[in-house]
Design goal:
This protein is mainly alpha-helical. It is built from 4 helices and no strands. The chain is globular and about 30 Å long.
Length: 68
Amino acid sequence: SYIAAIRGWPSTSWAPDAVVELSRSLIALKKPADACQTLAEFAKRYPKASTTVKTRAAQARNQAKCAA
């Protein structure tokens, strides 16, 4: 559902949050490499995301053990 939402509405105000939630779902599914790739896209696509969402993305990056 997150992927469909992101693809269908990539520029909405809630799209950055959907990307973070997708990455958290991937972590829960034991797919940290996919989560890291998703979070890398987050940084590229949403540089103006809110501080709260950026903080949650950083936490997800740490949890997935993404390379810096």
